[in-house]
Design goal:
By secondary structure, this protein is α/β, with parallel strands linked by helices. It has helices at 18-29, 44-49, 51-68, 84-108, 161-164, 181-193, 212-224, 313-327, 357-363, 378-382, 413-421, 426-430, 440-450; strands at residues 8-14, 34-38, 111-115, 118-122, 125-128, 131-140, 144-146, 158-159, 173-177, 196-201, 228-231, 235-241, 244-249, 254-257, 259-262, 266-268, 282-283, 286-287, 300-302, 342-344, 349-354, 367-373, 388-394, 399-406. The strands form six sheets. Strands 1, 2, 3, 4, 5, 6 and 19 form a seven-stranded mixed β-sheet that branches. A five-stranded parallel β-sheet has the order 8-15-9-10-11. Strands 20-21-24-23-22 form a five-stranded antiparallel β-sheet, sandwiched between helices. Helix 6 (181-193) links the parallel strand 9 (173-177) and strand 10 (196-201). The protein is globular. The structure holds flavin-adenine dinucleotide. Residues 14-20, 37-40, 44-46, 49-51, 54-55, 117-118, 141-144, 161, 182, 269, 273, 304-305, 311-314, 316 line the site of flavin-adenine dinucleotide.
């Protein structure tokens, strides 16, 4: 081997977001040699433009609402205003601390971290900054980008979540295009920050991927919070004049706003990266991968948002770990996509796992459901929140879906996912003691009821 020739790594990973870095860390733990290529910031979308900044904004929003609503709890407090520079300082501080921690974690392992934009130039070779990194295995983890609609240019006051995360002002009027997870989270933040908000969604309901009962409850809660929404309505176009955006809808109606947030989904970052040329099969831009994240090319894997399915950071982590273990020969179990917990952090929060009632009715001959209202749950009453825990089970069989809505209910998804993934019967969960007074108790009570022994349930 010539002195300047590069060694062959066990794994070369393209993209240092949730999927890519989790794969790198687990592979290094398993003693594999790893090169991790990242063109921007280690941590990817989730840390810098996704989960963490949005949840920081949502927390600031909750603090604003607490200040407004003190009276409800006998606390004299007033809400003055939102200082966006203070909000951004807080948010950026959280990101920066996590980013530093992650950088030192990667540095502490034997991971070769390579900065620069990489491209797959052969099935097992990534070229970056004039350097060729060859791996026995290659993992594609280049993530996703915020999509727009045909003819809708992202500029000025028309923006995606990426620009909306570093606003230095609170827009008085906002139109949110898209009533999915990102759309309703931002709508929730803007409302709490004092904006007048209208969501425009082409589908018949908000958070259309969730159980229908959850959408209904969210719409009820949003109405109460005076968050406007137009469902089953198509966007026709938008024009900007100065700082005003005029959004027109099919049917002729138009809405004036100071900001249009485009939240119509995310597309895979695969274009121009040499994937297809190397033989990796794509489908509408997504990398086709099997349940072990193997692509059409032997030794080339794909993880995270570029693989069709739930675009969630913890799915990326799990796939990254799975691939590292697969390469190390540990034969890990494939991931059940339905068993991945889903949380939407708007107020009220939504958390779910498994099948919706409609999906369960398609799959099973007979289905039983139970909805436990948070009205009977002490802690939820203390928090003054409304919502429910809805269980879906195959008749006389295990729980196949858990759907929850209410303030802080995202925190309950841990037990819900254990229940789903362990294929628990309602009676299994009913025999476990849930602490009082917690919102977790609502999960226990729902299972008690479905097991035929309801406690705090009005007939
Ligand atoms: C507003 C918003 C809120 C979200 N909130 C949540 C949440 O609360 N919970 C949750 O689970 N998920 C959330 N997500 C989704 C989550 O961020 C993604 O699912 C996750 O980041 C996907 O990880 P990934 O590794 O596939 O891609 P990414 O995190 O996008 O990482 C891909 C990385 O690859 C790099 N890259 C791309 N091309 C190249 C190249 N050619 N060379 C080198 N590097 C390259 C990019 O710079 C990037 O760092 C949110 C997303 C958004 C946008």
């Amino acid at each position: 081997m010539p002195a300047d020739a590069e060694k062959t790594f066990d794994i070369v990973i393209l993209g240092g977001g949730s999927g890519g870095y989790a794969c790198a860390l687990r592979a290094a733990e398993l003693g594999l040699s790893v090169a991790l290529v990242e063109k921007s910031k280690l941590g990817g979308t989730c840390l810098h433009q996704g989960c963490i900044p949005t949840k920081a904004l949502l927390h600031a929003a909750e603090v604003a609402d607490s200040a407004r609503e003190g009276e409800k709890f006998g606390v004299k407090s007033t809400f003055e205003s939102i200082d966006m520079s203070g909000v951004n300082r807080y948010k950026d501080g959280v990101i920066s601390r996590l980013h530093k921690g992650l950088q030192s974690l990667v540095k502490s392992k034997s991971i070769e971290y390579v900065e620069g934009e990489g491209r797959l130039v052969a099935a097992k070779t990534v070229e970056v900054a004039g350097r060729r990194l060859t791996g026995t295995n290659v993992v594609l983890a280049t993530g996703s980008y915020a999509k727009s609609l045909p003819g809708l240019e992202i500029s000025g006051r028309i923006m995606t979540s990426e620009q909306a995360l570093s606003l230095d002002f609170v827009p008085p009027r906002v139109v949110v295009l898209g009533g999915g997870v990102i759309g309703v989270e931002f709508a929730s933040v803007f409302k709490s920050f004092g904006s007048e908000v209208t969501i425009v969604e082409a589908l018949p309901r908000l958070v259309a991927a969730e159980d229908e009962a959850v959408s209904k409850q969210l719409e009820r809660s949003f109405r109460k919070r005076k968050i406007g929404f137009r469902t089953g309505v198509r966007f026709a176009g938008a024009t900007q004049s100065g700082d005003t955006v005029t959004v027109s809808l099919e049917g002729g109606e138009s809405i004036e706003a100071d900001l249009l947030l485009v939240a119509v989904g995310r597309g895979p970052v695969t274009d121009g990266l040499g994937y297809e040329e190397a033989g990796v099969r794509l489908d509408r831009g997504y990398v086709v991968a099997d349940e072990r994240c193997r692509t059409s090319v032997d030794g080339v894997y794909a993880v995270g948002d570029i693989v069709p399915g739930l675009q969630l950071a913890h799915r990326g982590f799990a796939q990254g770990i799975l691939v590292a273990e697969e390469i190390a020969g540990l034969s890990p179990s494939p991931i059940d996509e339905l068993g991945i917990p889903r949380v939407t952090y708007c107020d009220p929060e939504i958390a779910s796992v498994g099948l919706t009632e409609a999906q369960a009715r398609e799959k099973y001959a007979d289905v039983e459901t139970f909805e436990y209202g948070l009205g009977g749950n002490g802690k939820s009453q203390i928090l003054q929140t409304q919502g429910f825990v809805k269980l879906v089970r195959e008749k006389d069989g295990p729980v196949v879906g858990v759907h929850m809505i209410g303030a802080r209910m995202g925190e309950q998804v841990g037990e819900a996912q254990l229940i789903y993934n362990w294929e628990a019967l309602p009676s299994d969960v009913a025999s476990l003691v849930h602490a009082h007074p917690t919102q977790n108790e609502a999960l226990g009570e729902a299972h008690l009821a479905l097991a035929g022994k309801p406690l705090h349930v009005h007939a």
